[in-house]
Amino acid sequence: MKHSLKTFSLFVTGMVLAASLGQTAFAEDLPGSGKMVRYAQSDSLGANYVVAQIGMAAMKELGYDVKLSTLNTTLFFQAAAQGDLDIATDINFPQREPGYKKVEAEAEIVGGGLIQGGGINGYLIDKKTADANNITTLDQMKDAKIAALFGTTGKADLINCDPGWSCGDVVDFQLEKFGLKG
């Protein structure tokens, strides 16, 4: 049996459908009645946490019993391919494409996903400092005076993505490309 990587949009559709059937439906009439879903949420408390909470609530509203596991996406792909987990709704493509490709014979993407065309990686600084120093690009971090504004050693400090997240690879690539390593 092929296991599916369900997306949030599928659950929203299910929630709308369930709501349109009326709130007086009996539990045994719900599509998930008597069925267990082994749901995976990311091990990071980023925005994907909210998506997972909404997805789980939708599954419960449809009558499913939800067993939650918390792990990173790479491990989810493995677990789904092995039949140990059923659903995750917080996977961003195409960033996660390489990990998915390794298990695509045993797993399936359903729906269009949340981020069409890929995620956006960026850098955030406080507006007061940006305005006061006319900081508008990452390239300006090459200026020692600008970099010193954000660190204690004369270099800018950076908090990268959680280990194992593909956005970390993007940040590392950009630091190399812009000559900001070291």
* Name of the level-1 CATH class of the largest domain: Alpha Beta
Number of domains: 2
What helical percentage do the residues reach?
25-40%
Report the total helices. Answer: 7
Question: In this structure, how is the largest beta sheet organized?
Answer: 3 strands, parallel
- Listing every helix as H and every strand as E from the N terminus to the C terminus, the arrangement reads EHEHEHEHEHHH
Named CATH architecture of the largest domain: Roll
Q: Give the name of the CATH superfamily of the largest domain.
A: Dipeptide-binding Protein, Domain 3
CATH topology of the largest domain: Dipeptide-binding Protein, domain 3
The general outline is elongated
How many β-strand runs?
5
Which runs of at least 5 residues are low in confidence (pLDDT < 50)?
A: 1-25
Mean pLDDT: 78
Strand order of the biggest β-sheet: 3-2-4
* Rounded radius of gyration (Å): 21 Å
In percent terms, what proportion of residues is strand?
A: 5-15%
Query: What is the first-to-last residue Cα distance?
Result: 49 Å
Give the class from helix and strand content and strand pairing: alpha/beta
